[in-house]
Amino acid sequence: MTDKPIVQVDVPQDVLAKEFCDRGSQFLRAFELLNQHGENKVVYPQFYALSHAVELLLKSYLLSDGATYLEITNLGHDHAKAYAACCARKFPTIDNLDHLIRWLVDLNHDHELRYPENMEGEFPHPDECLAVAADLEKLARSRVVVFGVLAEVGLAADHRGKEVRYKRYNPKGKRA
Predict the structure, then answer these.
(1) Which of 11, 16, 20, 61 has its CA 20 to 30 A from that of 27?
(2) CA–CA distance from 76 to each of 43, 59, 86 (Å)?
(3) pLDDT attached to residue 83
(4) Do 60 and 15 form a contact (C-beta atoms < 8 A)?
(5) Residue-range domain boundaries for the chain
């Protein structure tokens, strides 16, 4: 418990973009670790981690470019929609990202990475996927980290002596 007064604030856009990027980076590290140590025994969890990493990194780019949380949630888990939204915002070209997106969409159109449906997915080489996803992570991180940290420092300065808590969002984008 803290003796400081608590202030609840909306999550600043730059902080939210940074959080999406940080979480995407964590899922990308999980993909990388499973690739190094999984010996192809955990292929579905491994590629699920990649899929979620790509989704979060694309969404962090969108948030850093002014998309709202509601716009992000309306994309669902659709990589193609998220990628198209990025491209509509002058998203820089990343070699083979379009191929990775198409593969994720094809494999996961019936949530194959989440649930054992048709069990017919073919997986590309993890190292190739990792190279593309790492480029996406670098792009997202280059956009969000500095501004996210500055926003956090600004909040701390604005509310000195208080404990800052972010208001939570529910899946419909309304305050909880």
Answers:
(1) 11
(2) 23, 10, 14
(3) 97
(4) no
(5) 19-137
